Each structure stands twice: as structure tokens, then as C-alpha cells.
Amino acid sequence: MANESRPCPCDIGDRFDYGGRGQEVQVEHIKAYVCKPPASTDKAVIVIHDIFGWQLPNTRYMADMLAANGYIAICPDFFVGQEAWKPSNDWASFDDWLKTRNASKIDIEADVVLKYLSEKCGAKKIGVVGFCWGGAAVHHLMLKNPLLKAGVSLYGVIRFFEDRSSLLHPTFFIFAEKDDYIPLEQVTLLEQKLKQNCKVDYEVKIYPGQTHGFVHRKREDINPQDKPFIEEGRKDMISWLNKYL
Predict the structure, then answer these.
(1) Cα separation of 21 and 14, whole Å?
(2) Residue range 23-244 in CATH 3.40.50.10380
(3) Mean per-residue pLDDT over the chain, rounded
(4) Which one is catalytic: 169, 212, 226, 236?
(5) Confidence class of residue 222 from pLDDT cuts 50, 70 and 90?
(6) Please, which residues have CB within 8 angstroms of residue 117's CB and are 6 or more apart in sequence?
(7) For 53-99, how does the pLDDT look when each residue is reduced to its tens digit (9 = 90+)?
(8) Which of 50, 64, 77, 179 is catalytic?
(9) Would you call 29 a catalytic residue per the annotation?
(10) Cα→Cα distances 230→122, 216, 224, Å
(11) Is the pLDDT score of 208 beyond 70?
């Protein structure tokens, strides 16, 4: 059951006080944040933001982490100039806001970013990771985009794509045990459908005691017991990409 007063709790916990090591670029009609590793590589990862948009320091921190692990990381503005959600907004208006930002309507932007990574960055093996809204977008891309090699969906909103499980590429799904927005029954149902229909490698993992947004939140300063699971989620994300890219 979703928390109706706060229907998408990505903003729980501290924000990173973080400026980022990369730079902002213009990719055709999209603004994007790009961070490159010290050594040249032909591997890249598209990072899809949550409802708080491409400029959220937490998400840029994750892009930089990917770059530190040897990947060209790009976080495009998949809202394409529309305002990101703000914690100060009235949550009663959230559903109407969300209707104008559909996680399955990103194909044009994804193709633009893939072209940029291939032609301007020399990327030949490209994966995608995403958080919350972005996790749902990863699920969508894994169902239909032939140019991507692997994906990691972190607490992607299952109800957006719950009936679609014929993935094209290896996909890792990260969920939190105590996620008020994604009930464990939905996760179980997703697993069942993947088992029935999915022909590629996949994994669904639930992290005990964690809540929505845990991997890209700085919560270890508040609850030290969460730190091992935050680190495990990040390590698992990198390991999946290393395996398939």
C-alpha cells in the first residue's frame, strides 16, 4: 500500500552535499551530466534519475561512482526541461504531475543519448541504471531497446510495467524490504512473471530492513545499520554491469 500522504518517498534521508566531478553538456535537445573515467573505455552507462530530476546531487554521485569504476556515465534530463518534483510541492498534486512524465515515453531521448555515446564518446557496450521513476524507465528500455546490453533497475515502480516481463537483456532488480511504495507482493508477482516469460539472465534481490531510495541516499549518517546494505546495493549494481558490459 502506497503512503498516500507522500506517495513517492525518494526524498527521505539526507541529500548529498555534492557538486559532482563531471560536466554538463548539451546533447541535441537534451541537457545531460557526463562524467568520464581516468582511462579511456568503450563502456558506458546511462543513469536515469528519479522524480527529483537530473540535477539531484545524489544521482550525480552515483554517476561519478560509475565513472570511478571505469564507465563513461551520463545522466540526461529525461524530463526534457519540465520541472522535476520538489519536496516542497503539494503531494496531493503528485499523480497529475506524474501523468505528464511517463517513464515509457523516453525512447526518443534514449536514442539521442545512445547516438551521442557511440559517436562522441566511442562507446560500444552501453548499459543503463535507474532509480525509482528511472528504475521503471530501465524496465521499459530492457523490454524494447536492442542497443543496450544490460540494465539495473533500483526500486523501479513495478505497477508501471507489471504485465511486461519478456526482457531483451540481462536485468538486475533491486528492491527494499520496507518500501511503502512498492509492496513485496508486487515484487513476488514480478518474479513469477519473469520466471515464466523471461529468456535472458535476470535477478531480483530484496535488501532487508531498507526503505525506498536506499542505494542513492546518504542515510548511513543517520542509521549506521543501513550502511552495509547501501554499500551492498552499490556493489551489486557495479558487479552486474561488470558481468554484462
Answers:
(1) 20
(2) no
(3) 89
(4) 212
(5) low
(6) 44, 46, 72, 74, 123, 126
(7) 999 988 999 999 999 999 999 999 999 999 999 988 998 999 999 99
(8) 179
(9) no
(10) 32, 8, 10
(11) yes
The C-alpha cell of 1 is what? 500500500
Check residue 108 and give its pLDDT.
Answer: 97
Active site residue 75: no
pTM: 0.91
- In whole angstroms, give the CA distance from residue 245 to residue 230: 23
pLDDT in tens, 165-184: 899 999 999 999 999 889 99
Instruction: Look up cell 518534483; give the residue.
Output: 85
Residues 6+ apart with CB under 8 A from 136: 103, 104, 130, 153, 156, 157, 158, 160, 161
Quick count: other Cβ atoms within 10 Å of Cβ 144?
A: 14
Cα–Cα distance measured from residue 192 to residue 200, given in angstroms and rounded to the nearest whole number? 14
**Annotated catalytic, 179?**
yes
Which of 10, 35, 75, 132 is labelled catalytic?
Answer: 132
Give residue 164's pLDDT band: very low, low, confident or very high (50, 70, 90).
confident
Residue partners of 22: CB distance under 8 A and separation at least 6: 33, 34, 35, 36, 60, 63, 64, 67, 73
pLDDT at 135: 96
Pairing of strands 202-207, 72-76: unpaired
206 in Cβ contact with 176 (< 8 Å): yes
Task: Return phi, psi of residue 178, to 5°.
Answer: -110, 40
Query: How far apart are the C-alpha atoms of 177 and 21, rounded to whole Å?
Result: 32
For 159, phi then psi, to 5°, come to -65, -20
**Strand 30-35 relative to strand 23-27: parallel, antiparallel, unpaired?**
antiparallel
